[in-house]
Design goal:
mainly beta; about 40% strand; globular
Length: about 425
C-alpha cells in the first residue's frame, strides 16, 4: 500500500517526536481495521484534551461527532479552537490517533480559528476495540438508551480559543435551577431524559453571548431535548461592533507583594475583548479612580515609572458605576511569571543566602510543580532583615520547606533588583 503525502508527513512528525500537528477547523482521515481493511460505519469523535482553560480534569467532552463511510473515510467539521484527541470506536473502548488505546499516548491535534482543513489523520483500530463495536444495524451516532441518564459533563469554550474571563459563571438549565462553572469552564448538569433544558449562561461579562451549543458532538440549540448523550459544549463569543456606556470606577489595589518594591504605580485595565487600554495613577493609599470607562471585562495590571508591569490573576468586570472595586494580587511575589522563569532572571547575579523560612512552598497558578516560598534573611553587618521570595522551578528538586527552619539557598537573583531569587536544587 502506498501512503498518502499527508500520511507520510504525520508519520514523520510522530517518529521525530514533534508535538504540534497542522492546525485547522476540520479534521479528515481514514480509519482501518487491524488487518488494513476500511473500518466502515465506525463512530469517530474530536474529544477535548485536558488542559488549563479547557477542562483540566476531563477528556470526555465531545466537540464533533461523525462516522466513517464504506471506505473508512471520515470528516469532523466545525470544531471550536483548542486541543483535541481524535478517537474511533465504541464509547467505552475507543482507539485514539495514532492507533493507541491509552489516552496518555494519544497525539493532540490543534484547532485554530480560520485554520485550513487538516487531512491525513489516518490510523488503524486496536483489535480489542474492534471487538467492542456496536452490534450490526445500530447507528453509532444515536444516543444509547441504556446509558445512565442524564448526568452531563459540560465545558464552556471561547470561539477564538482564548481563555475564559475568570469571573463567576453559572449554567441555568431552566426551572430556576443553576450549577456553578469552575475556573476551567467545566460544569455538570443533571437533567431528566426526554425533557427540554433551556440553557443560559449567567454572569457573562458585557459583550459576551452564547453562540453555539454542541450536544454529544453534534450542533444543537439552547432549547435542548435531553436524549441520553452525556457531553455538552457551550461556545461563547463577543458581540461584533458592540458599544457600551462609560461609567465611573473607584477602588483599591490590594495584596501587592512587598518583595516587588514598587512605587509610583499606575493601574492598567486592558479589555478581554478588544478596544482601548485604560491607565490611571495609584494613590499612596492604594486607591484609584477612572472618571469614564466603558462597562466590560478587563485584565488588570500595575505598572511602575520604568515600565515594569505586574498582572493581577483576576479579571475585573465593570457592569455599572462602582466605588469599591478591588484589584487583588494575592500577595504573589512572582505575578510576572506563569509557571516558567522567563526573562526575569536572565542576566541576574548568582548569590547564596541563608535565612528562616516564613512560608511553605506555594504552587503557581496553573502548575503544581513550580511555585515559591519566602524566607527572612538577616544582614549580619547591619542587622536589617529582608524578606526574600524564592522561586522554585520544580518542587521535587528542593527540600521540604518547613516554616521556622533555616535554609541556605544558592540561585540567581532577579535582574530588576527586587529581593527575588530562582533557586538551584538544594
Amino acid at each position: 500500500m502506498i501512503a498518502s503525502v499527508n500520511s507520510l508527513k504525520i508519520m514523520a512528525l510522530l517518529i521525530f517526536g514533534a508535538v504540534q500537528l497542522p492546525e485547522g477547523r476540520s479534521v479528515a482521515g481514514t480509519v482501518r481495521l487491524p488487518g488494513g481493511e476500511p473500518a466502515a460505519g465506525v463512530r469517530v469523535v474530536a474529544m477535548v484534551a485536558p488542559g488549563v482553560g479547557r477542562g483540566g480534569r476531563t477528556s470526555s467532552v465531545l466537540a464533533s461527532l461523525t462516522q466513517t463511510d464504506k471506505d473508512g473515510h471520515y470528516r469532523l467539521e466545525d470544531i471550536p479552537p483548542g486541543r483535541y484527541f481524535i478517537a474511533a470506536g465504541a464509547v467505552a473502548s475507543p482507539t485514539f490517533f495514532p492507533g493507541t488505546t491509552l489516552q496518555n499516548e494519544a497525539q493532540v491535534v490543534s484547532i485554530t480559528q480560520g485554520g485550513a482543513a487538516i487531512a491525513g489523520i489516518d490510523f488503524a483500530m486496536n483489535g480489542n476495540t474492534v471487538n467492542s463495536q456496536q452490534p450490526s444495524g445500530v447507528n453509532p451516532l444515536i444516543a444509547n438508551s441504556s446509558r445512565p441518564c442524564c448526568d452531563i459533563t459540560g465545558l464552556i469554550l471561547t470561539d477564538d480559543g482564548h481563555r475564559l474571563p475568570t469571573v463567576p459563571l453559572k449554567i441555568n438549565s431552566g426551572n430556576n435551577t443553576s450549577v456553578s462553572v469552575d475556573d476551567d469552564g467545566l460544569f455538570h448538569l443533571f437533567v431528566r431524559r426526554d425533557t427540554t433544558a433551556q440553557l443560559a449562561i449567567e454572569g457573562l461579562p458585557p459583550g459576551y453571548f452564547l453562540k453555539t451549543v454542541v450536544y454529544g458532538g453534534m450542533n444543537a440549540t439552547p432549547n435542548l431535548l435531553i436524549d441520553g448523550r452525556n457531553s455538552l459544549i457551550l461556545v461563547i463569543d463577543v458581540q461584533p461592533g458592540a458599544t457600551f456606556p462609560s461609567v465611573t470606577a473607584r477602588g483599591k489595589v490590594s495584596n501587592l507583594a512587598r518583595e516587588l518594591n514598587v512605587t509610583n504605580l499606575s493601574l492598567v485595565l486592558t479589555p478581554t475583548i478588544t478596544g482601548e487600554t485604560f491607565m490611571t495613577p495609584v494613590q499612596p493609599d492604594s486607591s484609584f479612580e477612572y472618571s469614564r470607562i466603558p462597562v466590560g471585562s478587563y485584565r488588570a495590571a500595575v505598572r511602575d515609572a520604568a515600565g515594569n508591569t505586574w498582572p493581577s490573576p483576576t479579571t475585573v468586570v465593570i457592569r455599572e458605576a462602582v466605588s469599591d472595586l478591588k484589584i487583588d494580587f494575592g500577595n504573589n511575589p512572582f505575578p510576572d511569571l506563569t509557571g516558567l522563569p522567563g526573562p526575569l532572571f536572565a542576566g541576574g547575579k548568582e548569590i547564596t543566602i541563608t535565612g528562616v523560612a516564613t512560608q511553605r512552598f506555594t504552587g503557581m497558578s496553573g502548575s503544581k510543580r513550580s511555585g515559591y516560598f519566602r524566607m527572612d534573611v538577616k544582614d549580619e553587618r547591619t542587622g536589617v532583615i529582608t524578606s526574600w521570595a524564592i522561586y522554585v522551578s520544580d518542587v521535587n528538586l528542593v527540600a521540604n520547606i518547613v516554616a521556622g527552619q533555616t535554609y541556605t539557598v544558592t540561585g540567581t537573583a532577579a535582574h530588576d533588583g527586587t529581593s527575588r531569587l530562582i533557586a538551584k536544587p538544594f
